[in-house]
Hints:
Layout: H1 2-13, H2 17-54, H3 56-62, H4 64-97, H5 108-120, H6 123-131, H7 144-172, H8 174-177, H9 180-203
Amino acid sequence: MTTFVLAALVLIMIPGPDQALITRNSLxxxxxxxxxxxxxxALGLTVHASAAALGLSxxxxxxxxxxxxxxIVGAIYLLWLGVQTLRTAARTRRAAQEEQTPTAxxxxxxxxxxxxxxxxxxxxxxxxxxxxxxQFLTGDAGSTRAEALVLSAIFAALYLSWFSLYxxxxxxxxxxxxxxxxxxxxxxVTGAVLLAVAARLALATQ
Length: 206
Protein backbone atom coordinates (compact mmCIF):
# COMPACT_ATOMS: atom_id res chain seq x y z
CA MET A 1 0.00 0.00 0.00
CA THR A 2 2.82 2.43 0.87
CA THR A 3 4.42 1.80 -2.51
CA PHE A 4 1.13 2.48 -4.27
CA VAL A 5 0.60 5.75 -2.36
CA LEU A 6 4.11 7.00 -3.14
CA ALA A 7 3.87 6.04 -6.81
CA ALA A 8 0.42 7.60 -7.14
CA LEU A 9 1.60 10.84 -5.52
CA VAL A 10 4.51 11.11 -7.94
CA LEU A 11 2.17 10.62 -10.90
CA ILE A 12 -0.31 13.18 -9.58
CA MET A 13 2.39 15.77 -8.89
CA ILE A 14 3.90 15.54 -12.38
CA PRO A 15 2.80 18.71 -14.28
CA GLY A 16 0.14 17.95 -16.85
CA PRO A 17 -3.24 19.10 -18.19
CA ASP A 18 -4.89 18.90 -14.75
CA GLN A 19 -2.38 21.27 -13.20
CA ALA A 20 -2.55 23.61 -16.18
CA LEU A 21 -6.35 23.74 -16.09
CA ILE A 22 -6.56 24.16 -12.31
CA THR A 23 -3.99 26.99 -12.50
CA ARG A 24 -5.96 28.66 -15.26
CA ASN A 25 -9.26 28.50 -13.40
CA SER A 26 -7.71 29.49 -10.07
CA LEU A 27 -6.56 32.70 -11.70
CA UNK A 28 -9.90 33.25 -13.43
CA UNK A 29 -12.22 32.31 -10.55
CA UNK A 30 -10.07 32.43 -7.43
CA UNK A 31 -9.86 29.59 -4.93
CA UNK A 32 -13.45 28.52 -5.69
CA UNK A 33 -12.68 28.17 -9.39
CA UNK A 34 -9.60 26.07 -8.69
CA UNK A 35 -11.31 23.82 -6.16
CA UNK A 36 -14.36 23.25 -8.37
CA UNK A 37 -12.11 22.34 -11.30
CA UNK A 38 -10.28 19.92 -9.01
CA UNK A 39 -13.59 18.32 -7.97
CA UNK A 40 -14.52 17.94 -11.63
CA UNK A 41 -11.17 16.26 -12.29
CA ALA A 42 -11.74 13.83 -9.43
CA LEU A 43 -15.18 12.99 -10.85
CA GLY A 44 -13.52 12.33 -14.19
CA LEU A 45 -11.16 9.92 -12.46
CA THR A 46 -14.12 7.97 -11.11
CA VAL A 47 -15.29 7.29 -14.67
CA HIS A 48 -12.02 5.57 -15.52
CA ALA A 49 -11.75 3.86 -12.14
CA SER A 50 -15.23 2.38 -12.49
CA ALA A 51 -14.56 1.38 -16.08
CA ALA A 52 -11.30 -0.29 -15.09
CA ALA A 53 -13.01 -2.21 -12.30
CA LEU A 54 -15.68 -3.41 -14.72
CA GLY A 55 -13.17 -4.25 -17.44
CA LEU A 56 -14.42 -1.58 -19.84
CA SER A 57 -11.09 0.25 -20.01
CA UNK A 58 -9.33 -2.91 -21.14
CA UNK A 59 -11.99 -3.29 -23.82
CA UNK A 60 -11.45 0.32 -24.90
CA UNK A 61 -7.69 -0.16 -25.18
CA UNK A 62 -8.21 -3.40 -27.11
CA UNK A 63 -10.28 -1.55 -29.72
CA UNK A 64 -8.13 0.68 -31.90
CA UNK A 65 -11.18 2.47 -33.26
CA UNK A 66 -12.67 3.25 -29.84
CA UNK A 67 -9.31 4.42 -28.56
CA UNK A 68 -8.83 6.66 -31.61
CA UNK A 69 -12.29 8.23 -31.24
CA UNK A 70 -11.79 9.02 -27.55
CA UNK A 71 -8.28 10.27 -28.25
CA ILE A 72 -9.44 12.66 -30.96
CA VAL A 73 -12.35 13.99 -28.89
CA GLY A 74 -10.06 14.55 -25.91
CA ALA A 75 -7.43 16.26 -28.05
CA ILE A 76 -10.02 18.59 -29.59
CA TYR A 77 -11.33 19.52 -26.15
CA LEU A 78 -7.85 20.29 -24.80
CA LEU A 79 -7.08 22.21 -27.99
CA TRP A 80 -10.19 24.31 -27.46
CA LEU A 81 -9.19 25.00 -23.85
CA GLY A 82 -5.69 25.98 -24.96
CA VAL A 83 -6.99 28.41 -27.58
CA GLN A 84 -9.44 29.91 -25.09
CA THR A 85 -6.62 30.38 -22.57
CA LEU A 86 -4.41 32.11 -25.13
CA ARG A 87 -7.30 34.39 -26.06
CA THR A 88 -7.77 35.22 -22.38
CA ALA A 89 -4.04 35.99 -22.14
CA ALA A 90 -4.38 38.43 -25.01
CA ARG A 91 -7.32 40.17 -23.31
CA THR A 92 -5.39 40.33 -20.04
CA ARG A 93 -2.42 41.90 -21.81
CA ARG A 94 -4.66 44.52 -23.45
CA ALA A 95 -6.30 45.24 -20.08
CA ALA A 96 -2.86 45.77 -18.55
CA GLN A 97 -2.02 48.26 -21.24
CA GLU A 98 -5.31 50.05 -20.59
CA GLU A 99 -4.84 49.77 -16.80
CA GLN A 100 -8.11 47.90 -16.39
CA THR A 101 -8.86 44.74 -14.49
CA PRO A 102 -10.44 42.04 -16.67
CA THR A 103 -13.36 40.12 -15.25
CA ALA A 104 -14.19 36.56 -16.14
CA UNK A 105 -17.39 35.54 -14.36
CA UNK A 106 -18.17 31.86 -14.69
CA UNK A 107 -20.85 29.63 -13.25
CA UNK A 108 -19.62 27.07 -10.70
CA UNK A 109 -20.77 24.14 -12.82
CA UNK A 110 -18.60 25.36 -15.71
CA UNK A 111 -15.45 24.81 -13.66
CA UNK A 112 -16.62 21.35 -12.60
CA UNK A 113 -17.52 20.48 -16.18
CA UNK A 114 -14.11 21.52 -17.50
CA UNK A 115 -12.25 19.46 -14.92
CA UNK A 116 -14.51 16.47 -15.51
CA UNK A 117 -14.22 16.50 -19.29
CA UNK A 118 -10.46 17.04 -19.26
CA UNK A 119 -10.07 13.77 -17.31
CA UNK A 120 -12.98 11.72 -18.61
CA UNK A 121 -11.97 12.30 -22.26
CA UNK A 122 -8.31 11.48 -21.69
CA UNK A 123 -7.54 7.91 -22.83
CA UNK A 124 -4.15 8.14 -21.14
CA UNK A 125 -5.97 8.15 -17.79
CA UNK A 126 -7.74 4.96 -18.87
CA UNK A 127 -4.35 3.54 -19.81
CA UNK A 128 -3.08 4.35 -16.32
CA UNK A 129 -5.89 2.49 -14.62
CA UNK A 130 -5.40 -0.69 -16.66
CA UNK A 131 -1.58 -0.73 -16.59
CA UNK A 132 -0.46 0.90 -13.34
CA UNK A 133 -3.28 -0.12 -11.01
CA UNK A 134 -3.20 -3.89 -11.66
CA GLN A 135 0.40 -4.04 -10.47
CA PHE A 136 -0.86 -3.44 -6.93
CA LEU A 137 -3.76 -5.87 -6.93
CA THR A 138 -3.14 -8.83 -4.63
CA GLY A 139 -6.58 -10.43 -4.27
CA ASP A 140 -8.05 -13.39 -6.08
CA ALA A 141 -10.40 -13.11 -9.04
CA GLY A 142 -13.41 -12.65 -6.79
CA SER A 143 -12.01 -9.70 -4.83
CA THR A 144 -10.03 -7.99 -7.58
CA ARG A 145 -12.87 -5.66 -8.57
CA ALA A 146 -13.42 -4.45 -5.00
CA GLU A 147 -9.69 -4.02 -4.46
CA ALA A 148 -9.38 -2.02 -7.69
CA LEU A 149 -12.17 0.31 -6.53
CA VAL A 150 -10.47 0.80 -3.15
CA LEU A 151 -7.14 1.69 -4.78
CA SER A 152 -8.96 4.01 -7.18
CA ALA A 153 -10.62 5.75 -4.23
CA ILE A 154 -7.22 6.18 -2.57
CA PHE A 155 -5.86 7.64 -5.79
CA ALA A 156 -8.78 10.09 -5.97
CA ALA A 157 -8.23 11.08 -2.31
CA LEU A 158 -4.55 11.75 -3.00
CA TYR A 159 -5.53 13.75 -6.09
CA LEU A 160 -7.91 15.91 -4.03
CA SER A 161 -5.37 16.37 -1.24
CA TRP A 162 -2.52 17.42 -3.52
CA PHE A 163 -4.52 19.84 -5.61
CA SER A 164 -6.22 21.34 -2.53
CA LEU A 165 -2.74 22.27 -1.31
CA TYR A 166 -1.84 23.50 -4.79
CA UNK A 167 -4.91 25.75 -5.01
CA UNK A 168 -4.23 27.05 -1.48
CA UNK A 169 -0.68 27.95 -2.52
CA UNK A 170 -1.95 29.82 -5.55
CA UNK A 171 -4.47 31.65 -3.36
CA UNK A 172 -1.65 32.82 -1.05
CA UNK A 173 0.12 34.31 -4.05
CA UNK A 174 -3.01 35.56 -5.76
CA UNK A 175 -2.23 39.28 -5.45
CA UNK A 176 1.08 38.80 -7.20
CA UNK A 177 -0.23 36.27 -9.71
CA UNK A 178 -3.17 38.48 -10.67
CA UNK A 179 -0.99 41.36 -11.73
CA UNK A 180 -1.99 41.73 -15.39
CA UNK A 181 1.55 41.27 -16.75
CA UNK A 182 2.19 38.18 -14.60
CA UNK A 183 -1.28 36.74 -15.19
CA UNK A 184 -0.90 37.16 -18.95
CA UNK A 185 2.42 35.29 -18.94
CA UNK A 186 0.97 32.45 -16.87
CA UNK A 187 -2.04 32.21 -19.17
CA UNK A 188 0.23 32.09 -22.24
CA VAL A 189 2.32 29.29 -20.72
CA THR A 190 -0.82 27.43 -19.60
CA GLY A 191 -2.37 27.77 -23.06
CA ALA A 192 0.83 26.49 -24.67
CA VAL A 193 0.91 23.51 -22.28
CA LEU A 194 -2.70 22.61 -23.11
CA LEU A 195 -1.98 22.85 -26.84
CA ALA A 196 1.13 20.69 -26.44
CA VAL A 197 -0.80 18.07 -24.47
CA ALA A 198 -3.55 18.11 -27.11
CA ALA A 199 -0.95 17.53 -29.84
CA ARG A 200 0.71 14.68 -27.93
CA LEU A 201 -2.67 13.10 -27.27
CA ALA A 202 -3.66 13.36 -30.94
CA LEU A 203 -0.41 11.69 -32.00
CA ALA A 204 -0.47 9.04 -29.28
CA THR A 205 -0.71 5.41 -30.23
CA GLN A 206 -2.46 2.70 -28.25
